[in-house]
Hints:
This protein has nine helices and 38 strands. The chain starts with a helix and ends with a helix. Strands 1-2-3-4-5 form a five-stranded parallel beta sheet. Strands 7-14-13-10 form a four-stranded mixed beta sheet, with no helix packed on it. A four-stranded mixed beta sheet has the order 16-15-20-18, with no helix packed on it.
Amino acid sequence: MKTMKTAFALCTILLGFLSPTIEGIAETTQLSGTTNGIGVENGQASEDITQGSNVIDSKSTRSVGYIDENPKEESSNVSNETNLALTNPVHENQNKTTKALNEKSWLATELDENQAFIDATVVAVNKTESEIQKSDLELIKNLVVTGASSIPEKISDYITLESLYVSDGTVSSIPDGLYSLNKTLTNLGLRNNHFIVLPEKLFDDSFWIGKSNGLTLLLDNNQIVSDVPNNTGSAGMLDFNSRNNMLEYFNKTDYHNNPQGQLMYQGGTPTINVPVGYDFKANTPDTTNLSLYVTNAGYQPLFPGHEFVYYDDGSSSVIQNGVATHSGSGKIWVKSKFSTLTNPFARTQIKVNVETPAVIGDVTAKYVDTDGKKISDDVVKSGNVGDAYTTEQKTIAGYTFKEVQGSATGTFTDQAQTVTYVYTKDLIAGGDVTAKYVDTDGKKISDDVVKSGNVGDAYTTEQKTIAGYTFKEVQGSATGTFTDKVQTVTYVYTKDLIAGGDVTAKYVDTDGKKISDDVVKSGNVGDAYTTEQKTIAGYTFKEVQGSATGTFTDKVQTVTYVYTKDLIAGGDVTAKYVDTDGKKISDDVVKSGNVGDAYTTEQKTIAGYTFKEVQGSATGTFTDKVQTVTYVYTKNNVTPSPKPDDYSDIPESIKNNSNGNKNESTSENKNILPQTGDNEGLSMIGMISGLFLIFGTIVVILFKRKRQD
């Protein structure tokens, strides 16, 4: 019994030490696909690989398994067997902890800080980044990487790696380190990346000597144009998924390899005009609007690494060996520089109009590098048949003259002649070429694209499709060569116009009274508008109600500028009252007020006068000048009533005067009548005369009585 207990204890300790190893073996067994859902039995391929990756059985048929192309499932987790615990919260926390580290880990240094591979390794090993060592990498059988821009050279550290899936990134090349895994690696997934060409070594079954005796590749949704071997599923040929590339050979009956993308010009087949003698081999095609058309996805922009050349298949009568020899209409191919001549997917035809040169017998001097690429403008010499010509060697920055092909000097004939000056390229780093994307106001509407290269290298910039804008023009050279100066190419777009509601600026006083004309702004939805504060005589700006600046919308908008009235003392307004001779007949009335205020003068009622007219504005507004309003009156005519000749109380002697001239005096008095216009003076004279008359009468009476006494 004691012996059994001891044995049981030893077994428990042994299992404790071996449990990590057993767990690793179990996980490796799951991922290797030998005994679970990833493995293949009876010639049937598994359908449960993450992101559409196929694991192919090792039998001679090696048929490609069905891959669910549903976008949601393509981006989902790995299948149950290869999930690698991606959704494990512990792994997620470890990943966050890894990213928070301030010091660079050994893993980051080893993988050249390739974060996508670092994250995938952390998940695969189930350790934090700082804990991972080289020995951990050597145990990884399966690695799933998403969003990488490259594959690190030290992928060679994963010495037991069997399956590597790198998807949904911008990877475009294979590092040498990957080839060191040729004895273990059986599955390589490179879907949804930026591959244009692939090395032949990937397709050499004799090189990949893992347990499947070859490498199963997943290459769909790249833009591969290189010469990939003809794969129809025959025994001994490499299996791979090649959908949506530009491959010459693919399995037309296999859903995963069909269809391919097609190189074509978006917007229709273009036409170019060239003169007789034009050498297509020495020129590069215009790639504006050149795109990859993918079924169910439409036109796709080409990756920057593409290069294109003209290819003459001999079918056009006006073009021979790539040279336009006769005037007329023809066609020529534009093809990928990296594809075969027979690849139908990596080429497209364009129309050519060959025009007769204006002068017969031209001699064209061309300047090219050792690849036949044009490095300077052609120089065309013209003359009559039999005349001598001379061509010149140029000094071209960044190039060294090598040789001349053709006759540098000679005589004109009735045929076009070409002299080619060949140069070797000096490798000098050129200034960057920046493609900018702006609207017609110069406002940036998309990210810049910067191209780099050596002086003399060709560059090509691309027109973008930008939502809400229509391409208008390109300013600068869309294609050209790098120089020692920085260059800018500007793509200008017009904004798609949608008429917006008007914006009306109103100008009122504090009572809401309009004091200046409205200003109406019009524009398109999204355009900026600006309203202006006016300077209005007699008013001071107080505030603005509404948005003085903003953007037009589909609604009308109002901006109200409010002003307070300025109090400025105006010149007095004097009302004068005169007769028709201009003589003042009543006191002036002076009115005072501020400039702009209203005034009113009044017509008076003046005794003895009748209003005739007013001269000036009886009502109006005060200004900064004095004003006069004159009220003119006519004098009324007055005829006084005659008084009776009653002299009964006056002594006879007085009546007869001292001379006894009664009648004369009476007659004289009767003839004294008031004259028109003398009313006031006559009234005073009459009063005084009356007083004297009374006083005289009293004196006479007293004197008469005294004499009687």
